[in-house]
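Data deposition worksheet. Section B asks for the primary sequence of the deposited chain exactly as it was used as input, without tags or linkers unless they were present during the calculation. Section C holds the resulting structure in token form. Section D is free text for depositor observations; keep each observation to a single sentence. Incomplete worksheets are returned to the depositor.
Section A, Depositor: J.P.
Section B:
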Amino acid sequence: MNEFDARRREVIDIARRMTADGLVVGTSGNVSVRCGDLVAVTPSGVDYDDLVVDGIPLVDLDGTVVSGSLSPTSELPMHLTAYREHDAQAVVHTHSLYATALSLLRDDVPAVHYQLADFGGSVVVADYATFGSDRLAETMSEALKGRAGCVLRNHGTVTIGRNLAQAYNRARQLEWLCQLWLTAAQVGTPRLLDDAELASAAKRFSTYGQSSR
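Section C:
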């Protein structure tokens, strides 16, 4: 299997995990990963269980399809913007329940847990824009400044990473953070961490694990 096909296989595997983990329903959400000057991305409106490697579109950073039998996701503008403007190497877009619910109530994901430090601080809720539109890519890009993820109002989430494993882990963590706040807020006013504690956690995250992040 060549490098491009390996990345296409990753896209399929993560897309199926999104469904299994309840971060999307049906064919919603999308996944992409950069491979040199090309991007492997989920196709539009195809059941993830039916995906095959040869069908996964490969596009350049201008959005031109160079390989693959299927058309790319309608959210391609968001993905390409993340690569061009935020140095992403992988992008995961979910329609996760708790994050979307929080987006109806707040303009950010509050500091309910030190895990937010992995995103660069409090995660911003991007202004609403129609799915698949250039405007949505713009609002996402604004919310991603200095962050590794954002919430899309009335829509879902976008997370980025140095690879698909990291981007997907962030998608799951972001959903958990939103669930945590919503759960606590049902019974009282959640106590939040201050900026100094988040900064301290960010320093610890920089050397966390078996290799530098």
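Section D:
The mean pLDDT is 94.
The CA atoms of residues 103 and 153 lie 5 Å apart.
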